[in-house]
């Protein structure tokens, strides 16, 4: 490529974000030429010589875009809110500095919810203003939620298998993503409160948007149209 600055790098994560982004890319006239399930490549070529895809961890997408490792990326609102809070002392999405969050792609949809064991009286625990022990990977979202309700909370940070926490007595409740509800059901947990709806967003590096205005604008518009 002769004009390196014109090349566009899109950060995606393997799994549902990648899978759900493919139809949007196709609608924008872009086909990904490498299959991440078949190769170990982290940089994927596309049918557009000036567009490439980099595969990063879902929670690393905002970091890549913020620091210009990618010009744009697709990340869940959950990831963006946690990332924003991490770097801005709990101010959430409003504080995402170098990131511009223009398009709700309406993919990878789910909800952030509170779940407990069926025999735990959540309503009473919340009403009485007693302390409640909550385990989550999403500690900033959880803290904000319970603060808004005026509920005292002891937060326990976990990185996975959150369903185990109420079953082992580690916590009274968990805050986790729910889509079909079958994971909760399989672990005899019940969804007791919905915190917010979650979907994936297209995030854009602001400097890249200025530097590569035309091709970036066209790509963002195509994504927006495809997302509907
Ligand atoms: O897995 P890894 O640690 O690499 O990263 P990640 O979990 O952040 O990535 P990934 O690919 O699992 O999720 C990427 C994004 O997809 C998330 O950031 C969400 O915005 C979105 N998404 C949509 C979901 C779900 N639906 C979802 N159901 N992310 C996770 N889940 C999990 C949930 O945590 C729970 O364990 O699926 C389970 C519940 O599913 P149901 O269908 O049984 O209710
Ligand atoms: Mg996952």
Gist of the model:
The protein is an alpha/beta fold. 34% of the residues lie in helices and 28% in strands. The two termini are 33 Å apart.
Q: What attributes does this structure have?
A:
single chain; 228 residues; alpha/beta; D-Maltodextrin-Binding Protein, domain 2; 2 domains; six-stranded mixed sheet; five-stranded mixed sheet; 9 helices; 11 strands; 34% helix; binds phosphoribosyl ATP; binds magnesium ion
Please give a structural write-up.
The protein is an alpha/beta fold and 228 residues long. The chain has 2 domains: 8-108 and 199-227, 3-Layer(aba) Sandwich (D-Maltodextrin-Binding Protein, domain 2); 110-197, Periplasmic binding protein-like II (D-Maltodextrin-Binding Protein, domain 2), CATH 3.40.190. The chain has 9 helices and 11 strands. The protein has helices spanning 16-27, 61-66, 77-87, 122-127, 139-149, 164-168, 182-186, 206-211, 213-227, and strands spanning 8-12, 43-45, 51-55, 72-76, 99-104, 110-117, 132-136, 153-157, 173-178, 189-198, 200-205. It has a 6-stranded mixed beta sheet. The protein has a 5-stranded mixed beta sheet with strand order 8-7-9-6-10. Strand 2 (43-45) and strand 3 (51-55) form a beta hairpin. Helix 1 packs across helix 9 (213-227). The protein is elongated. The two termini are 33 Å apart. Residues 89-95 have low confidence and may be disordered.
Using the alpha-carbon principal axes, give the shape.
Answer: elongated
User: SSE order in H/E notation?
Assistant: EHEEHEHEEHEHEHEHEEHH
Instruction: Return residue spans where pLDDT drops below 50 for at least 5 consecutive residues.
Output: 89-95
* Backbone structural class: alpha/beta
Classify the helix fraction into a percent range: 25-40%
* Distance separating the two termini: 33 Å
